[in-house]
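protien #1 (seq + structre)
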Amino acid sequence: MKLLLVGGTRPNFVKIAPIAWALRDLWGISAKGKKKKGSHIFRIVHTGQHYDYELSKAFFEELDIPKPDFFLNAGSGTHAEQTGVIMVEFEKTCQEEKPDVVVVVGDVNSTLACSIVAKKCGIPVAHIEAGLRSRDLRMPEEINRIVTDSISDFLFVTEKSGVQNLKKEGKSETQIFFTGNVMVDTLLTQLPKLKKKTHPRFFEGNYAVATLHRPSNVENTGVLRGILEAFVDISHDFPIVFPVHPRTRKYLESFGLNNLFTDGNITIMDPLPYLEFLSLWKDSSLVLTDSGGLQEETTVLKVPCFTVRENTERPVTVELGTNRIVGTERKKIYRAFEDFRKKGKTRGKIPPLWDGKAAPRIVDILGRIFS
């Protein structure tokens, strides 16, 4: 069997890594990505949606992922432009490689584009992280999730809400596989590596880590100002470390909001490599984020998380984990922080099958389907 494993953004590669490890270990692929006698074949496609190849390359090296076999150079642009470029280039890859299955992960434009192309080429599609729903069609990711799932043949689900969502949307039980969360596989695999390195602590005692990147939060002056003012309020009690996403930095500058940070105890920095960022947030007292992945990762390590959004597609992180939806208004965010300060850390539970073995389950299922 020949499999194409598709990623386009840095979070995609965090999800792809354990799949690549499992393919290598279970299908007999050498550390250099070369096929051993009698084994299946897999190829990695990097669409270039996160178009800084050198930054992506650091992820490959850090996470021990084989160098991509194809780099599609999608680059930046509008959603339509980016999706269109990926579709044109990925069609060429499919025609050249003629894979038996295309595996896509997550909910980015690359996920949508490559799943559509594969289906139009008559190639089965497997979607990892299927079934998640925020019910908010203002989120580009929600559109990508719905469309990708609607045409995927094999749906690998991270939490039970995903199974329920897919059944309601008419998917057959034979297509749905509850296998756990590949991001957790990566997290648990990389965590021991931190003990072998010295990572500087930014603060002694309580501190918070913030991330912000969603267009609905950073491309609206009023919304972004309110969130940042809430961060400043919180930083008077918990110093905040804020690795700033390129999109967020762009709008901070264009809206003239950088001056807000002078009123608080906030350390601004560039985005960090995976291990450095993990080292930073795992020891924090609180994470403030609009990221989907961080909701999951903080749940596993039982770090309190405030999701700076009005909804989440990952409800298990709220129902069982340490996540809390706090909205985007300054008063609501700070009110949640005051409540957190009074009541202390939430005792969360790790969701079912978030045990670091999701990828081997997925690869085993694919192997049986295509044997």
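ok now protien #2
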Amino acid sequence: MTLMQAITGQTARVGVIGLGYVGLPLAVTAARQGFAVTGFDVDPAKIAHITARHSYIDAVSPAALAEVCAAGRLDATSDFTRLADCQIIIICVPTPLNSQREPDLSYVEQTATTIAAHIRPGTLVVLESTTWPGTTEEVLGPILASSGLALGADIFIGFSPEREDPGNTAFNTRSIPKVVAGSGALAGDLVAAFYAQVVDKVVRVPTTQTAEAVKITENIFRAVNIALVNELKLVFDAMGIDVWDVIDGAATKPFGYMPFYPGPGLGGHCIPIDPFYLTWKAREFEVPTRFIELAGEINTRMPHHVIDRLRAIVDADSGRGLNGAEILLVGVAYKKNVHDMRESPAMKLMQLLDQAGARVSYLDPHVPQIPPMREYRQYTARQAIAPNALEPGRFAAVLIATDHDAIDYGALLTLGCPVVDTRNAIARRGLPMDRVVKV
């Protein structure tokens, strides 16, 4: 049986490496569509959760996970020798930046090396991790070729960018259109055939470099436009104009405008990171990326601006500044209604408050305890404050960083201190604005 026949007949076993926000939803979706799927991860906690049929990702319901596990279509392991049993291998590992804001492909490279040690002829390998254009053929391909198997004959490679949006209930892994490409015509056919079995719509593009550039472009578009409204906010604040009112008014135009909203900084794994993959690669071609770099500077500066304003507000209210003041930080997840902490600007706010000598408590119904994070290890296991501990007179100020729907915003207004709102959460709910400052 050929690999194409195994794909279209759904007899090919799928291996998904990396069972996080991208990998687990993909693994469950493929299993629900009829494929036998093995999930691979180095984290034993994830393996234990899946074995116990407990979902740790909001996008995967416990019922869906239990369904595919009970049917024998999904299992999870840390035994990477089982990659030899897979005819389709999907890589969903992190692609962070290093301390110099340069691409860190170590997870992709280590994963590819592991695959090369176990891969067999007649296997398709697809990279989903966001990266710079050229990675699939310049990095993944040569490592897999070190197995002694021929690319395009024995093994095939492709790229299909993940498009997960944590907390977005309108779209899921199956309903989001899937951009796909292969290294060569046959590889492209195989990638397209596989995803056509898993998702509702497949969009095939000419090359893996094109597919890689698609994802980078999507995230640069968001990063630049968020930077634009963050800069407009500073300008309009100086003029005494509410930027939120401006955006609401502009959004009534039915063409030629798309609303973006300011905030305390960028969060999530994609938008704060992915644009710099292109700026790094562009240097190889001696092409400047001024828009991207300027957007990065503006967005990176926003937490500092928020703390500067907070300091002035607390000083004007109590005459004490931030040193020794207790601040309630509301919301530490990177976006509303999720527990995802990746690159959350709230953690930078917490760090800046600590450096200013403030005492910080945080309130977040989605994050009862701060998980281990690469950049903010000092906050690991810090506990959220209980809602019943929010006594009037305790705090010098409330700082809203993430506007979860589950927060009792009315209760925040009874604490008797200034409320600094970076998300327009109070005004959107029609609550009194007497002591609220939009920042």
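DSSP finds 14 helices and 13 strands in the chain.
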